[in-house]
Write a structure and sequence with these properties.
Number of strands of chain B: 26
CATH architecture of the largest domain in chain B: Beta Barrel
Number of domains of chain B: 2
Helix content of chain A: 40-55%
Shape of chain B: elongated
Structural class of chain B: mainly beta
CATH superfamily of the largest domain in chain B: monomeric porin ompg
Number of strands of chain A: 0
Helix content of chain B: 10-25%
Largest interface: A-B, 57 and 127 residues
Order of helices and strands of chain A: HHHH
Structural class of chain A: mainly alpha
Number of helices of chain A: 4
Strand content of chain A: under 5%
Strand order of the largest sheet of chain B: 9-10-11-12-13-14-15-18-19-20-21-22-23-24-25-26
Distance between the termini of chain B: 44 Å
Oligomer: heterodimer
């Protein structure tokens, strides 16, 4: 029961967030692009700007963003 | 008649202030007037100074990444080129003026100007001049023809985005003026200067990155080191990367047949990535990677354990394995709103040669030693409003003899204030029949001047434990909670940047001694320290 309620809340938050993220499907006026274009406001693969740790994905199988066996959490075949 | 009150900028030596009063009429700027003023003398020039000349306006802002690539080329290959040539093909002098549209962070604008080598810069903080061209994005390039005295300045070219030097030169050289005479000047290609020095009229950028991570506890030490070199040539980009992972472990186990051992291993990775802009909105990307070595310290630990048990005289030998793998990936990116939104779809294939699980008895039972994975990825980035940018990623991974694994990850960057950014991230992963994981992270960044940013971050991760394999003694990790906090600092220079961060990391496994008794040491709760450093340089 407790887990079920938490799962529903989690789904609701995830869906609400997804919808909010996608409503930005319109061009932002140039005068409003300054803040959102700052280097630390953009999403980058560069290790200087990305916060993702490659080492931690060895320990946390649910956060592996790429890779085969590791990303799929394959333990029977490791 | 509109009037542009341009602010005096201290970096613009010869042309500091451009005061424009213009009346836009169709594609002509008639009644165009201007005044230039130098810092020292306050000398002004009247609008007639542009009569008989060509004016190129290059609108930019310090935060505009495409401007950073376009402006140096415009300065070198347009301004300097036509100055050297004494005008265009018809002998008409060409002026280039860069127009800064961003009022905030003047130090960052200084940095942009130094990096791009712009000579003549004016400000348009109110966007008055920009609005005359009804532009919604930068870089914006405008070519004005001042050779027709009766029509003022005529707009002959206006383009949001930089098409390249050859296109811009073609427009400038097509302006003949009233006399329509063609000078007898040697024609040279865009890549050849008069002095014979080869120059590039296509945006060329090289970038090197080096990064390292160390995760250390009392008995385990895990590191990862990466080095990459990238090359951007116009619309084509490639980079090559090398990586090294190391594992140093003090292994123990309650298994009476196992002898504690201190051991270590490495994993070497190579990666090649390629991308090509097909047009203004579509980019194709490709990736190939190869590695040798264990994918994780866990895989290495288990291999060492099985190897030692398999060496006992009453068990069958555990096979010698040389773990390695390849990955191939392709993606297409659609920028449906340039600078504001894109959609990316991709497919990846992974083949991993791995050390199998084992169960020792009268006959040794081995698990798979090769697995294939197929991954589909969908990502969308959007600017939600003037203060929020989001990224949503969806992944579906299908691996040999497993059910499909779904992952959703959402990131939201919020400019709380001009100098403060909050980065929020959350993700959720599910694989039937019983694996669930989620995480949430918050990072608060504060600008300290133009070059320094400090950050505080916190992160929580939870999973239900991986799906147990079919062996009697499962090696699947039990449920896990992790906590990570830390402090970081980032420095942004003209052509390089640096990031350092450090903080504690706690792993808390549930019931390791029950779920995986022989592997209790591997799944023991630990207190770690995580240290990260990264440096990049553009040249």
């Amino acid at each position: 029961m407790y887990n079920s309620i938490h799962r529903k809340i989690g789904w609701f938050v995830a869906m609400a967030w997804t919808c909010c993220s996608l409503v930005g499907c319109k061009a932002i006026p140039l005068s409003d692009q300054g803040l959102v274009s700052k280097p630390n406001m953009t999403f980058s693969d560069s290790p200087v700007f990305a916060y993702q740790s490659n080492v931690l994905t060895q320990i946390e199988p649910g956060t592996a963003g790429s890779g085969g066996a590791q990303a799929a959490g394959c333990t029977a075949c490791r | 008649m509109n009037c542009l009150n341009a602010n005096l900028r201290r970096w613009a030596k010869p042309l500091l202030c451009l005061l424009l009063a213009m009346n836009l009429n169709a594609s002509a700027l008639s009644g165009f007037q201007r005044e230039y003023r130098t810092a020292e003398s306050e000398e002004t020039f009247s609008s007639e100074s542009f009569q008989g000349r060509i004016l190129v306006l290059d609108f930019f802002a310090h935060w505009c990444a495409p401007c950073l690539r376009a402006s140096p080329l415009i300065e070198k290959e347009i301004a300097e080129y036509y100055l050297e040539q004494n005008g265009n093909m018809h002998g008409i002098p060409v002026d280039v003026v860069a127009v800064n549209v961003e009022a905030s962070s003047p130090k960052r604008t200084d940095l942009f100007i130094r990096r791009t080598g712009l000579k003549n810069v004016i400000d348009d903080f109110e966007g008055t001049l920009l609005s005359e061209f009804k532009a919604e994005s930068i870089p914006l390039l405008v070519v004005l023809d001042g050779t027709h005295s009766d029509a003022g300045l005529k707009v002959v070219y206006q383009k949001a985005g930089f098409e390249g030097v050859p296109q811009l030169r073609a427009v400038i050289d097509s302006i003949t003026g009233p006399s329509e005479t063609v000078r007898d000047i040697p024609v040279r290609s865009a890549g050849q200067s008069e002095s014979g020095i080869k120059t590039s009229a296509i945006s060329v950028e090289r970038k090197s990155e080096i990064s390292g991570e160390v995760l250390i506890s009392d008995d385990y030490q895990l590191t990862q080191w990466d080095l990459s070199y990238g090359h951007t040539y116009g619309k084509t980009k490639w980079d090559f990367g090398l990586g090294l992972q190391t594992f140093a472990l003090e292994m123990r186990s309650p298994d009476p047949f196992f002898t504690p051992v201190q051991t270590n291993a490495e994993r070497v990775l190579t990666q090649f990535r390629f991308s090509r802009e097909l047009n203004e909105v579509i980019t194709l990307k490709g990736q190939f990677g190869y590695y040798e070595g264990f994918q994780s310290h866990r895989a290495f630990w288990l291999h060492e354990y099985y190897q030692q048990i398999g060496d006992l005289p009453f068990f069958e030998d555990y096979p010698k394995i040389d773990p390695r793998g390849i990955q191939l990936a392709a993606q297409v990116r659609w920028e449906y709103l340039p600078a504001s939104g894109y959609l990316e779809a991709g497919y990846g294939f992974f083949r991993d040669r791995i050390a199998p699980s084992a169960e020792f008895g009268r006959t040794t039972i081995l698990g798979l030693d090769r697995i294939d994975s197929h991954m589909l990825r969908l990502a969308s980035e959007n600017v939600i409003n003037s203060r929020m940018r989001s990224l949503v990623e969806l992944r579906l991974t299908d691996t040999s003899e497993r059910q499909s694994r779904w992952s959703v990850q959402e990131s939201l960057n919020i400019a709380v204030r001009e100098q403060t950014v909050l980065r929020a991230q959350a993700g959720w992963t599910k694989e039937n029949p019983s694996f669930d994981a989620w995480f949430a992270a918050l990072t608060l960044e504060q600008d300290l001047g133009a070059s320094w940013i400090i950050s505080l971050f916190a992160r929580y991760y939870h999973d239900t434990g991986e799906i147990q394999n079919s062996l009697t003694s499962s090696n699947a990790p039990p449920g896990l909670d992790t906590y990570h906090a830390g402090f970081g600092v980032r420095w942004l220079g003209e052509r390089s940047s640096l990031r350092l961060s450090a903080g504690p990391y706690w792993t808390r496994y549930q019931d390791a001694e029950v779920e995986a008794p022989f592997f209790e040491d591997l799944y023991q709760s630990r207190n770690w320290g995580l240290f990260q450093a990264a440096f990049d340089m553009t040249f």
